[in-house]
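Sanity check. The docking grid for zinc ion depends on where the pocket ends up, so I'm generating a full predicted complex first rather than guessing from homology. Inputs follow.
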Amino acid sequence: MRPAIALGRRAVAALIAHPQSMYWIDSHCHLDAAEFDADRQAVRDSARSAGVGLCVLPAVEAANFDTVRLLAHTHGDVYALGIHPLYTPRAQAQDLQTLDQQLRLHRSDKRLVAVGETGLDGWVPGLDMATQQRFYTAQLQLARLHRLPVILHVRRSADLLLKGLRQTPVQGGIAHAFNGSLQQARQFIDLGFKLGFGGALTYERALQLRRLATELPLDALVLETDSPDIPPHWLYVTAAQREAGAAQGRNTPDQMPRIAQMLADLRGVSLEEVQWVTTRNVRQALGMGDDWLQVCRANAQN
Ligand SMILES: [Zn+2]
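Predicted complex below; grid placement will be based on this.
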């Protein structure tokens, strides 16, 4: 038995007033990536038409802090500032000072919602784990100092990330593109985190991930595209096609509704329920008040 979800009175009123309207938050989108240089505005417009009212734009290194902040302001989105584990080989200690300064300087910017993307990657070869850990711990300390949630990159690193969170507790956040075990998921949830699911859910063979997305409480999940990465199966270009000269498929934030439909189907619930609950979850995880629902709705022109 799955308990019925209780919608707030305002949510129900909005549903009745706008039965066809769906407002999505893409909780992880690298709109600043070079893959979007040729058509960034069109990509964001297309997402808007698909009902994506807000994208969360995480930075990956000090060099793109200004870019993500400007993009968020230009497109009415929100952003996070941090140093991604894959960028730690070229990051400097000075970059942590820059991060601290930027978090201080923009503390009253309501579009700055988290520290991230930070975390640990235990999968990509050649990354020094001690260096990653140094940047991760320092960013957890900055998140505490500036009272911000954290957006985490998790890849074969869940236990190490959890250990770091126990040593340096933060107010929570999002473990994006989550791919750990059910037990690890529960530990993140206990520490105040929501778990991000996206394009990887669309692969029939992703049995463990699909089981996770079905068994965890919907209250713990947020949806994301991770654009331009992790293309859903309908955009995926196979190795054989790439050998024949095709480029890897590019993920875009307008895929949100279709990915959400996949989650709704897997769980056997309505798309409306997935929309209301996951949108609220993002706002909870990132400390964004009710007013953001209106911003999201106004920004989605579907
Ligand atoms: Zn990312």
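Relevant for the grid: The chain has one domain: 22-299.
Also worth noting: DSSP finds twelve helices and eight strands in the chain.
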